[in-house]
Automatic annotation (TrEMBL):
GO terms for cellular component: peroxisome. This is acyl-CoA oxidase. It is found in: Peroxisome. It catalyses: a 2,3-saturated acyl-CoA + O2 = a (2E)-enoyl-CoA + H2O2. The keyword Lipid metabolism applies. Keywords: FAD, Fatty acid metabolism, Flavoprotein, Lipid metabolism, Oxidoreductase, Peroxisome. It comes from the Eukaryota. InterPro entries: ACOX_C_alpha1, Acyl-CoA_ox_N, Acyl-CoA_Oxase/DH_mid-dom_sf, Acyl-CoA_oxidase, Acyl-CoA_oxidase_C, AcylCo_DH-like_C, AcylCoA_DH/ox_N_sf, AcylCoA_DH/oxidase_NM_dom_sf. The active site is at E420. Residues 12-125 form the Acyl-coenzyme A oxidase N-terminal domain.
């Protein structure tokens, strides 16, 4: 690894600062890291022999230790974000700090917030978000838990009337949380079902943590990953809560039992909040890919199998094999692409917030951004899950061992396809509300897109003659490696498929028969955005990307050697995605069949060019060994020593003859 590091064409530290936003932020991260590195409890590999219960109990200790360190070092909220990012494990308090607090901020009245938020922030109460039931998740309206208003006592009575109505899955619900925000059907005194609303419910005693009467919770058992968290179930039998425990920011339940809308839940506010949550999901995909590729790249240097061109005397690092480069370096490019995608979304978020939410223009931008963010959530989590598994396999047999850090990373990550909007359901919803389709229709008929964001400009109308004349003229691999060329290919692909779907729907095709096509346009839209984001980070002045006259002056904040390597990654990301979906691109007829081989040749060349920088590119992610928890991905490359030591320390190896022998 040391030799590899000496080959790099750029200084990884410069790239780390770029990723972190500033050298100061990197220093802050490392200051927190030095404190955490002194904590033996945070050595992840210690948990690899533990079962679900053991992992959960360890996670509680982590929470306790972090709380003590927070007080000792007076860590701010920003520092705490760094802390959890550095620990990078599922612990139950994350549910309190994230979903529970977020829901209070969105749904509780000012007075309720004043009562509950300080307690939750200090972990004086620990909350969870209990929406999903055994029988219903995506379809929230189908929730069966009831909250019946009792005017005589001014209370609500909560019940889970059937097996399918039992809450199932909420994180931290099983054993940790002492309060929950429970989603239930509100039943008014006359028996009317008024819809699904959130209610604050105390689950456990604040004195000894025992369950309160009528409340039954438990852990739902071991999962693919995230086993430090007690995802739980909750059954309720005639549990009474005061009316004041209904979260009533947007609706009021009056003393006489009437439900009044207090304020229209501001759709724009919902969009902004969701946009922010999705920025985190995209950034989280980049983080997971960074972690996985750090392990896979370093191990692919240390691991030697076969020689180049059949040499039997000298074995090469497996990263010298082309297919290994393809499987490992492409995810590195995705990690960088999704980093810049998240950054671009964040800028958009700040622009929308600072623009004020009232303006009509902001409103339409919000709708566009919301559709893009939903599309990106589904897209990046899908790509990332696939790439993590690809990299796990790229570690060969050792990738199957938990000591590699890969199975736990994969197990923890793949839930992102399901939570915060199941990917396919969300794609359907983005399609059903028809934001993409509607916008396409508007832009096609109005023909002007001044108020549209760059990423929707591909929807502007073009004449048949323009379309006919618009053919890619690239004749060589280096010509297709031009962002102006491949970005246009992504635009044309997205425009073509949305146009096809629009035509089908206009001709009366039922939406239910268009699900697969909707997913195709959602993917094309998201992928275009990701490519835009990467290119824009490198060439911020070229706002008319696909024009030959676009200003391709490199970003001033990126040192030239770093810019060169990022440009290669950008090309690799775009062209490998293009090759993976070549059929969709060819249908759009901007590219012709001759461009497939050119794009593949460009990818092959890029892999060669990036190979010497592989280790430096993952070093730049600046992930400490403690967080990797991997014998394969260690900074010093002492893979076999670590594997042997970890195996020898295992509980089965404590005795010569196993107790089971008897
Ligand atoms: C690790 C983890 C943590 C979780 N934490 C929480 C939590 O803290 N609180 C909480 O309340 N819940 C939590 N959940 C539950 C989670 O939110 C739901 O599992 C998720 O919303 C998906 O719903 P579902 O399980 O009902 O899936 P379903 O909707 O039943 O999906 C099953 C399949 O049907 C498909 N499908 C369903 N409807 C459609 C449609 N209209 N069009 C196309 N395809 C469709 C889906 O794509 C999927 O393939 C958690 C789940 C996991 C795995």
């Amino acid at each position: 690894l040391a030799r590899e590091r000496s080959l790099a064409s750029f200084t990884p530290r410069h790239l780390t600062h770029l990723l972190d936003g500033s050298a100061e932020h990197t220093e802050r991260v490392e200051a927190v890291r030095r404190i955490l590195d002194r904590e033996p409890l945070l050595d992840k590999s210690a948990s690899y022999h533990l079962d679900h219960e053991g992992q959960y109990l360890r996670a509680l200790k982590v929470m306790e230790r972090v709380r003590a360190l927070r007080e000792e070092h007076r860590w701010s909220a920003g520092d705490m974000n760094i802390v959890w990012q550095e620990i990078y494990e599922g612990v139950p308090s994350l549910l309190n700090d994230d979903l529970f607090l977020k829901t209070l901020r969105d749904q509780a009245t000012d007075e309720q917030q004043k009562n509950w938020i300080p307690l939750a922030k200090n972990w004086a109460i620990l909350g969870c978000y209990a929406q999903t039931e055994m029988g219903h998740g995506s379809n929230v309206r189908g929730i069966e838990t009831t909250a019946t208003y009792l005017p005589a006592t001014d209370e609500l009575e909560l019940n889970t009337p059937s097996l399918s109505s039992i809450k199932w899955w909420p994180g931290a619900l099983g054993k940790t949380a002492n309060v929950a925000i429970v989603f239930a059907q509100l039943v008014l005194a006359d028996g009317t079902r008024a819809g699904v609303f959130p209610f604050m419910l105390q689950l456990r005693s604040f004195v000894d943590h025992t369950l309160l009467p009528g409340v039954e919770t438990g852990d739902i058992g071991p999962k693919i990953g995230f086993n430090g968290v007690d995802n739980g179930y909750l059954a309720l039998r005639s549990v009474r809560i005061p009316r004041a425990n209904m979260l009533q920011r947007h609706n009021e339940l009056t003393r006489s039992g009437e439900l009044r809308r207090r304020s229209q839940m501001d759709q724009r506010l919902v969009y902004v909040t969701l946009l922010y949550a999705r920025v985190n999901i995209v950034a989280g995909a980049s983080t997971a890919l960074a972690q996985g590729s750090t392990i896979a790249v370093r191990y692919s240097i240390v691991r030697r199998q076969f020689g180049q061109d059949g040499s039997t005397t000298t074995e090469s690092p497996v990263l010298d094999h082309q297919s290994q480069q393809h499987r490992v370096l492409t995810p590195v490019s995705e990690a960088y692409a999704f980093h810049f995608t998240g950054q671009r979304m964040l800028q958009l978020y700040h622009r929308l917030v600072s623009a004020g939410l009232a303006a009509d223009e902001a409103k339409s931008l919000l709708a566009e951004s919301h559709a893009t963010a939903s599309a990106l959530k589904a897209y990046v989590t899908d790509v990332t899950s696939g790439s993590l598994e690809q990299m796990r396999r790229a570690c060969g047999g050792h990738g199957y061992s938990r000591f590699s850090g890969m199975p736990d990373l994969l197990g923890m990550y793949v839930q992102n396809n399901t939570v915060e909007g199941e990917n396919h359901v969300m794609a359907q919803q983005a399609g059903k509300s028809r934001v993409l389709i509607k916008r396409y229709q508007q832009l096609q008929s109005s023909g002007h897109g001044a108020e549209t964001t760059t990423d929707y400009r591909y929807m502007l109308p073009v004449t048949t003659e323009q379309l006919e004349a618009d053919r890619c003229t690239a004749m060589r691999a280096d010509e297709i490696r031009d962002p102006r060329v491949y970005l246009h290919a992504f635009e044309r692909r997205a425009a073509h498929h949305i146009g096809m779907l629009h035509r089908r729907l206009s001709q009366g095709a039922p939406f239910a028969e268009c699900h697969v096509d909707v997913e195709r346009i959602v993917r094309a839209h998201a992928e275009l955005y990701a490519v835009y984001s990467f290119v824009e980070a490198l060439y911020p002045h070229a706002n008319t990307w696909t024009s030959a006259s676009a200003d391709m002056t490199p970003a001033a904040n990126i040192a030239p050697p770093v810019h060169s390597v990022l440009r290669r990654l950008c090309d690799l990301f775009a062209l490998s995605r293009l090759v993976a979906n070549l059929g969709d691109h060819l249908e759009a007829s901007y590219l012709q069949s001759t461009h497939g081989p050119l794009a593949r040749a460009a990818v092959r060349r890029l892999l060669q060019e990036l190979r010497p920088d592989a280790v430096a590119l993952v070093d730049a992610f600046n992930i400490p060994d403690r967080r990797l928890g991997s014998a394969l991905g260690r900074w010093d490359g002492r893979v076999y020593e670590a594997m042997a030591a970890m195996a020898q320390a295992g509980p089965l190896n404590r005795t010569d003859v196993t107790t089971g022998y008897q």
